[in-house]
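Table S5 (text form). Sequence records supplied for joint modeling of the two-component complex.
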Amino acid sequence: MRAGAAICVVLALGVLGYWAASGMHFATRTEIPPEEHLSCATAADCGGEDDACTDGKCFDDFGDPKPGTEWRETFELGIIDGAGPAAGGLLGLAGLLFFLDRRKRKAAAS
Amino acid sequence: MKHTAIRATLTAALMFVAGSALAAPKSLAVKGQADWISDAPVEKIVGTADGEGALTIDFDDLTSIKGTIKMPVASMKSGNAQRDDHLKGEEWLDAANHPEITFEVTAVKIVEAPTGDAIKEAKVEVAGKFTLRGVTTELTAPATLKWKGDKVKVETAFQVKLADYAVKGKQGVVGNKVGETIDVKVQLKGVAK
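The corresponding structure-token record, covering 303 residues in total, follows.
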């Protein structure tokens, strides 16, 4: 039981670590905004017929940096709707398992 | 003698008509994207919305620009589907009853006269009626107009204070998780015809 509790604590720390590594967002992000300056390999990647691709970045027909328009899929765990409940649940379970283990040991000792 | 006078009169009349037609305002359908940022203590939310509009533009007299820009609330995205649903809900932008955010241009003031040859650029100040969630206020925003032939690009940035438009959200959320003021940046392009 104690081992189960320890696993739960490790898992909770893992979830919080993943949340921290994901950018510590408040709410989970499943998409990230379009690029502020669209990347390209060729001018065709930029979309517009008069757009240019220079040094891997798109420029519109006015010579200005061209922003992207497409949202990109991602998964960045949020604390309020992902990491928080998951880590909280795991820590709660770990606490319960520790408590039950301690009660069992006490009962066995007496 | 008489024929020459008539010919000269007709030529002058034709030149006047042609000149007027050239200088006449052109209709401009624009399309693009609005980027918005809510920067609150707990969370920074970055989102986009589609934008489109119909304007009339006279390149010789930018102060005569008129028209309306619209942003469908349904097109707003923030990277979290649940949050997007809340955003369109009754407590926030109430998309069911107010499906569009609009800006009607009523006056344009030249801040920097047009410069450039192939690509012309002018800085202007645009005043108009901004409507969000059914509430209309006067809004003035700086804008940059660029045009190359009949291709036109409009860029502007302004702030929207949610309290001015009766956007209250859930209690305690505005000013905490959602900024009291939203920064909006709009880029639209079109071809004048």
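Note: Chain A has two domains: 1-32+72-110, 34-70.
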